[in-house]
Amino acid sequence: MSLTAIIVDDEKHSRETLTKLIEEFCLETTVLTTANSVTEAVDKIKNYNPDVVFLDIELQSGIGFDILTQIDTINFEVIFTTAYEQYAIQAIKFSSLDYLLKPLSIEELKNAIEKAKKKKDQEIYKKQLETLIDNLQQPKFNKICLSTADSVEFINVEDIIYCKANGAYTSFILKDNISLLVSKHLKEYENLLIEQQFMRIHNSFLINLKEVKKFVKSDGGYIIMNNNDSINISKNKKEKFLVSMSHLQ
Predict the structure, then answer these.
(1) pLDDT of 87-116, one tens digit each?
(2) Domain span at 46
């Protein structure tokens, strides 16, 4: 399957480098044109109707996300590019979208293009992009996208009571007696949720500190969550947990 692409980046060198990499290593992908500003990108996307847009997150004329808010119908795949691990990258991960870090890896570029070839459910993809834009407009991320074996769920972060390691999977225990099994390691979600007042209190558990009901000192110490589940806490995590609870906002 062949793809057409537009590259959006405010650095000429970056546009030329990515174009050359695609031409040399991604033979079924054709770069139609490039753009160096939000306005130019919006015009060219509307005129060329590409299959995929490589979108630099930070442009001198604004941020790459501004382009998405100015296009009524997003019928193309977006592969974000950036030179920095930053707040925006966290938002992209919350939405389960693809991104590439500069300097670009040829293998990662090829993998991203292969993913773009697999036509996504447009309604789900639209919701992923909406989640991304909504999270970026908030003081903290409100929603996270979770892929289960048979669905893609968009969950309010505040509805997560705790996460439990389940081998190579993670179980999300939510309010209203809902649980979801997701095919990613707990560590990945620890890295995402640590700034959202979550804490890894045990090798197997990542908890929402706002959902803690009480800490029981007997039997070596354990935590009871608001859904009345009991959670083990590692000895070396108790002091940090108590300090975190005392500073909870």
Answers:
(1) 788 999 999 998 999 999 999 999 999 988
(2) 3-136
